[in-house]
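Thread: "does anyone have the structure for this chain?"

Original post by V.I.:
We have the sequence but no experimental structure in hand. Need at least a predicted one for the grant figures.
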Amino acid sequence: MTIDIKSLFEDTEGLNSKMVNAIIKAIAANHQEDMDYLKFKHSILNLQKLDMDEPKSIQSAFATLQTMGIRKSDILDSIRHYSVIVNKEKEEFAMALKNKITNKIEKPTKEASSFDAKIEQKKMEIERLNREIEAIEKRKLSMHDEIETAKRKIEKTRDEFAAVYEFFAKSLDNDKILFEQLIK
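Reply from O.Q.:
Generated one for you, tokens below.
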């Protein structure tokens, strides 16, 4: 007999269908071959479809099971079996959730924190480079002033030398002309 396990659990509407299906799949993969909780519940629901109230449907289905040698403890043991399966799914979900938290939240948070340190380091480097640039710009300005001062000094020296040269060259030329005229 094939049982639609999902139909045995009422009011799954509004729950995450992917998660509901994962638990249904786990229950189906581990169902018991003998008369168990799932078959018992299926019988109860079928009786309720015949307009039997819940207490009477439970009692009637159980009376049928008793004729097959099934005891109340067998049904309760079967429920415990499926509870273990559901709890195992909960543990696996918790482990998967923990891994997602680690990979999607904790690791990125840690990485983001390392970015803060890198950003601070880069800001400090930028400040240091800005100070170096400022020092270089000041040195450049001061060199321009030194160059201008040196140019003026050199031009003054050149002009002074040219004046001295002109003085001596003219003096020598004048003496040469004078001496050529007067010495015979």
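V.I.: this helps a lot. The chain has a mean pLDDT of 93.
O.Q.: and Residues 72-182 form the longest helix (111 residues).
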